[in-house]
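Let us work through a complete example step by step.
Step 1: write down the sequence.
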Amino acid sequence: MSDDAYPVKGKQNSDGIVIAEAVTRALVILPDIRTPAFKAALRDLDAGSTNYTRTVTAKMEEAVGLALAIDLDVAETLIVSLNKIRPATLFGTGKVEEIKGLIAARDIYLVIIDHALNPIQQRNLERAWECKVLDRTGLILEIFSLRAQTREGRLQVQLAHLEYEKSRLVRSWTHLERQRGGLGTVGGPGETQIESDRRQIQERIIKIKKQLETVIRTRGLHRASRKKVPYPIVALVGYTNAGKSTLFNSLSGADVMTRDMLFATLDPTMREIKLKNGQRIIMSDTVGFISELPTHLIAAFRATLEEVLDADLIIHVRDIAIEETHAQAQDVEQVLETLGIGVENNDRCLIEAWNKIDLVEGQIRDTMIEQSIRSENTVCVSAQSGEGMDELIEMIDRQLSCQHTLKEIVFKVPDGKTLHWVYENCDVLERCDHEDGSVELNLRVPPEKMDMLERLLTQGQIETTGN
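Step 2: predict the structure and record it as C-alpha cells.
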C-alpha cells in the first residue's frame, strides 16, 4: 500500500514536508522495552552505575509533548511492554491486532511510536493498521520543519529529512517495482524507479550540502568578526523545554519565543549583554537537546551548535523541578561529548543553572540551594520570577574573569590611539592620572588580546609595572 493512501492531514511547507493540523487524531504508543539486555542494564544500575533512567510515565509525557508540538490531537495513549522485539513489526501479532481494533474504534488517523522503526517495520505496521505511522525520528523531523525560521535552519531540516527518507525508499511507494527504458534487448532493462528516486534524493542532498557550506562559511566570517571584538561568548545549552529561552530573555531583554513546548526554539539567537561590572558579553540561545536523538540529526544540526564549540563559557540550564532532571542532564552531556566538548574532563568553563527553583518546595528546595551554594559552578535560579539571577550574573562574571590576565601598565606619554585600543579591548579596572602626565591603568586582559598587548609592550609604547 502506498503512503498516498493515507497522508497526514495538513499543509505542506516549502520543503515538501507535511505539517499536521490539529484535526489529525493521533495515537501515541510507548514501547516499554524489557528485553534481556535491558534487564541487564537495570542490574548494572542497582550495582551502583551513575546512569539514570526515566520512568515510563515521564517518557510518555515527553512523547505526548512531542506530538502536541505539531498540534496533533492526541486521542489515545498506550504503553506496550515488550519482552522481545519482532523484526517485522516490533510488536507481536496479537498486539498488532489489538492496536488495529483500537485505531478503528477511536477513529485514529496517525500513530506515533516513540521508538526507532526500521523501514520494514514501518511499512508493515502501516499496512496492518491502514493508517500513517511515524517513529520518534520522523516526529522530531516534523517538529524541526515547523520551527526552522532561518535559511540555515531550513537547509538543515531538508538535509536531515532527505537522509531519513533515503533509507526508507524501500517502503515509500508501490511504483518502485516498475522499470522504465529499454525495449527487448536494446539498451537493457533500464533504471528501476527506486534507483531513480534514490539518485534524485542524493542529488538534492549534494546540492543542499553545498548550500549549507556557503551558509556555514558566512557564519564563520561572523564568528571571526566577533572575535575581533573583546566580547566573550556565553552559550546556553540544555534539554528541550528546560527554560533556556526564558532565561535568555531575562538576561538579555530579548523577545525570543517562549512556550511550554518541546523545541520552541530551533534557530540560534544571539544578543549582546552588559554585566554589572560593565563587561559586555555575547549570549547565544541554542536548540534544546533531547534523549535518543539520532546521530544523523546531531550531524545535520552541528552547524547550529557551532556557537557552543566557540563559546568561552557554557551555561547548562536544567529543569530542576522534575524527577528526570539527572537523566536529562546526562543526555545533554552526551550530546556535548559528541560535539567534542568534554564536560566531565573540565576542558570548558561551565555553569549549571538549576532553573525553575520556584517550583520546588520544602526540604528538597533547601537541600538544592545548599548544594548549589557549596558548588563553585552551580546556581539555583528562576528565569520566570527572577530569583537567583543576580547570583548567576556574578558567577558568569567570575568564571569569565578566571580566563583573563591582570596587568598593570603605565603610559608615560599617553598616546590617544593606543589608549583607545586598551579601553576598547580590555577591562579597565582602575585608572590613575599622575602629575607628570603619565597614566597608570589596572587591566583585565582577555586571552585573545594578550598577544597584541605584548606587542605594544615590546614596541615601548606602554610599560608594565605589575604582573
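Step 3: interpret the result. The CA atoms of residues 190 and 280 lie 64 Å apart.
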